[in-house]
Amino acid sequence: MQQQNIPIGTLVDMYKRGELRLPEIQRHYVWRATRVRDLLDSLYRGYPSGSILMWETDEPVPTRDFAIAQETTAFAGRKLLLDGQQRLTSLTAVLGGELVQVRGRKRPIDILFNLDHPDGPPTDDTEVTSDEDSPVAADDELADDADGTEDDDTEQGLQEKLNRRTFVVASKNLASLPNWVSVTQVFSTEGDAQLLKKAGITSFDDPRFQRYSDRLKKLRAIKDYTYVVHVLERSMSYEEVTEIFVRVNSLGAKLKSSDLALAQMTSRWPNLLKELEVFQEECEKSYFTIDLGHLVRSIVVFATQQCLFRSVASTPVEKLKEGWAQAQEGLRFAINFLRTNAGIEDETLLSSPMFLHALAALSRVKDNKLTGDEQRQLLHWLLVANAKGRYSRGSTETLLNEDLAIIFRKGEVSALMEPVKRQFGRLNVEPGDLAGRGVGSPLFSLAYLALKASGAKDWYSGLGLSLTHQGKLHFIQWHHVIPKSLLKERGYEPGVINEIANMAFITGQTNRRISNKEAANYLRDVVAKQGEATLLSQCVPTDEALWSTDRYADFLSYRRQALADRMNAFIQEKSLA
Asked: Model's pTM, two decimal places?
């Protein structure tokens, strides 16, 4: 195996010219913009940031497109990138101002550099986050650092926190400040005059001139940062290279088990990835975003009648292909059942995506022929198991395998409820279940579904609840009925402030209009214009005495009871319909 030292600038040029290609065994570009920010910070400080793994081959290996469009070149396909895709794509996007393709959309990744950053080591701990989200989905640092959706008195504190950072994800507010400059702009300009002028420096005598100039020079030096690049021998086969890819990423814990299983599949099943992506797009049209890992799991479920990935390597490819044909039909049923029967509009209302596999498996075992009783039993199981968090506790794969065994061996819908009863005992919702439970609780989505079914509407526009409204102003958000900033002032703990019992569902525009006003002030206006029924449909008391921040404990007690009653009634109504 050869080893070379190659500067970032050269690697980015190789990427853009198309000299580097991506084998099909690689996953999508998945980094969030905050991870790009942290990479730049490490490179700026000269910290280690891993190595690069390539394979130089003339073998006709199936490839996939990078997230950034490449130029065509006679050397295309000679070097395949096995490890380092996330870093090189991020650097190509930021240093060259290239657009990144994410779910059919092209967007920039814009990072700002703080000319006035503090000297010394980083002042913030690195946040370890999932790498499954879109790299450009949450591109506002202020939004990322906030713990809710309302305006409150923490904005000044957030601004001070960001000023202690060297790099941040761009926002309009920060970009307008004199000390923040776009990293892409720094690399696209030769001199510093324009950047320093924006920072308010008009003279060489300005004490900041030399400091800012040195920092811009240090930033541009990122292009000279050298990566150790390991190049695998041409003589290796694609299967052997795939095994190395799996081992490297297993040892480094960089990929999920589903990513490794997908790599093992694609090495024997060319163009599988394209098939999965086409099906992903089909599901997106129904507002369901299904991660590639769960599509891989669905293949495993139907090919092996269990959900563990360890059997992928030993399963014949023809059996995997048969499993994929069954999985597609099963998942289509699952999505349709969730949307039309349960009112679950997208995957965010599921406490776990594992429900998709159970519903899909049942539809195929039953050949889409469910009696009226079976439909009601299935809906009852889904709503209860989802609200209780059936696949959100303990070993989720073990629990799903327990349900898959019932489905594939017995095919009895009613039998699915037995493991739920053993797991949770009591199945109804009681007021105490809501105490201290927030938006991360499985009960949160049940609250939304129950209130939506009861006719809950936005308090100003009158729009009914839906996760598919058009336009950002009309997106449904959760809102603290009693403002959190006022509750903080009275010493309430976050767990109590952010309880489900303090949440209502309204549009983003209404949320901003209300801001952190005293509940008594804005609720009177809601009642005057929309009537008491508007509050009752969201289980908010009409007794004005309970709107007082000083009566928050009584407000929670009332609403916990009202929500529990409404949630139980909703499950009962849906199960008997």
From this structure: 0.63
